[in-house]
Amino acid sequence: MSDAVTLIERARSPQMPRRAQTEAFAALVRQFQDMAVGYAFSRLGDVQLAEDASQEAFLEAWQNLRQLREPEAFVGWLRRIVLKRCDRVMRVQRPAFVTMEEASATPSREPTPAEHLERSDVRAQVASALNALREHERAVTTLHYITGHTQAEIADFLEVPLGTVKRRLHSARQRMKGDLVGLVSENLREQAPSRDTAFEQRITRLMQPEQMRAPEYQYGVDNVDGNDAWDLMRACAAGDIKEVRRLIRRDANLVNAQHWYQFPIHFAVREGHAEIVRLLLDAGAEPGRSRYIYNSWQDLVADARRRGYDDVLSVLESTLRTRYAYDPEFEHLAQAIRDRDREQIDALLSIRADIARASDLRGANAIHWAGLTHQIDLIDYFLERGANIDAPRVDGQTPAMLTMNGDNRFVRERDLPGDSARDFWLVVEHLLDRGAEYNLSIATMKGDDGRVREILDGDPSAARRLDPCRRSYLHYAAAARRPDIAALFLDLGSGPSMPEDLAPSGRALHTACAQSDLEMVRLLLKHGADVNADVDSSGVPMTISAHRDPVGPSGVAIRELLREQGAVTPPPRMTVDDMRMALESAQTPPHPGSHFADEQFIGHLLRHDDADLIRLLLDARPDALQTVPIVSNRYPKSRECVELMLLHGLDPNGSDWLGKTWLHFIAEKDDVDIARVFLEHGANIDAVEAEHRSTPLAEAAKRGHMDMVRFLLTAGANASIPTEEWARPLAWATQNGHTGIAGLLRLSQRP
């Protein structure tokens, strides 16, 4: 236990580097994983449920490790957490004692009839032997044979005297007798989590993303301490309101820290902590700051409703009403506006006139929608009925700004009817005439240097700030093709690489390249613009230039200038030859910052589905597939390439930072052949990810992939997990209207 005490002190010491803390806790998981899973299995009788409960217990222990007063009491404390998690499972699902082998083994081929008979016989004998034991005997027996721990260590874990452990183990052996003891021992030890690193890795990957392990971390527009941001996310998940308050007092910007569209509030909502949700919102949390308003208010509300968290839902909707005049009935009016159905609009307002002053889940009111759909007459109609002409949407955009900037859910070029006016400035001018604020964003985009100077004369510091929707004024100047106005901002200290929405290294150069504005590009580069600045889902300056102006003289000149300044082709735009050249010219091992160290590079390399390219990667860096994190849906589609990757160290149970495994992504994409390969190599068919508590079967069910659902069920997927019914495959299929799949899943659920 002395080693464990040292690890505990290292794992929870604020003086230790974050990596050292994580490594120490990973060592604790390694030391006690068999004990935790064995104990959970003795109560639940199902290895997948046991591993899920133990995983959640370890994460809870990690989140609350600083609250443990005596490190020597860790094992008993851990057991009580495991017990609590098991009790939670047992409240919604009857334990079903099946063997570890039956629950987790995935054969690489169909067994012969003789093998099938032999396996069935072994499973039946072991299950019967364990099921016949008293509960306290089963716990001691499972711990003894699965863990390899001494009887004294088992006594510490169970918090009973050593003599009690000896008596219970003796009694259990007497009940089983003979060869059955050896059979149980072999069966349990073969399936212990310590047989490989999959269980440990699943937990450590859910601890902290590598990018957040830094004192300076930026995903949105605010630079925060990544370790503090992760601590806040953990505290929100654990319901530790005291720690949440401490971290927010330390840095108020942490409430809007994010990683891959996840804010601290997402963790609190998922775990049902209404008081913490309210605290975060009162402290300034704004889910609308998510890029493209993705995974924002609308998703949080839906998640709380799906999980039955009425108190959380009440907090969210109350805040939406206060901030944005949200009303769930407004969506009917918004749809009528989009449909240009004046008769329906009149009918809805005749029933509830006040709905004209409400908004939807994204904070868009009737004037937002009237402006976005270029219906000038409706702007006046709703103004007469009290709609707010300057109401901010959840991303900060007023109706005039949204009309000017556009929206990725209602795209002018795609969604406006053919007979509608296309010039958004006609609508913006009308809004300004009706009293909308003529702010610096609109004046800059409009090219009104007089109004720009007027505002800057009154507040020169505005040049160094972002606008209400977190965009830079240099971006607007570039969009307007006005280098003279851009020069005003630059002279007042605006930086072209200042972080802004969608663009952590600035957006102005990207915008100028999209416009093929050579003069603006030169000006921005002169002032230090980042030639490789990425804009979310829109590439980098080099790629947007090639896309918008592939052969024009300005485009050619811009790309040549960018190359001179160090621009490189980003992985999404690299051909097989580009990647081959990058691999052949790289150092071995690669230098820091090279393409090898880039998850994005490896992900896009895999999507090329080129076995020779994968071999070249492995020749240059043999451990590439062992160390790179999961790269979501970027995987080869051929058996040859996938098997090559798996044979060279790719973890078949690799997951992203929220536990979503390769098999989840494969099921989502309906790639039955590739799913078969991963299962043959040991992928966990019933892995449960942390965000939606989905299994691979649930991912297939929610998307209506009948072939994948049939395949996974035939391969042994459990349709009755996880324990929460709202997260099960049947719930997703029913919610999304996949009736055929829902019927099949009803027949497949286990008792």
Q: Which stretches of 5+ consecutive residues score pLDDT under 50?
A: 96-120, 587-597
What fold name stands as the CATH topology of the largest domain? Arc Repressor Mutant, subunit A
Specify the CATH homologous superfamily of the largest domain. Winged helix-like DNA-binding domain superfamily/Winged helix DNA-binding domain
Question: In percent, how much strand structure appears in the residues?
Answer: under 5%
- The termini sit apart by 40 Å
CATH architecture of the largest domain: Orthogonal Bundle
What percentage of residues falls in helices of 4 or more residues? 55-70%
- Total helical segments: 43
Write down the oligomeric state: single chain
Number of E strands: 0
Tell me the Rg in angstroms.
29 Å
Structural class: mainly alpha
Mean pLDDT: 89
Top-tier CATH class of the largest domain = Mainly Alpha
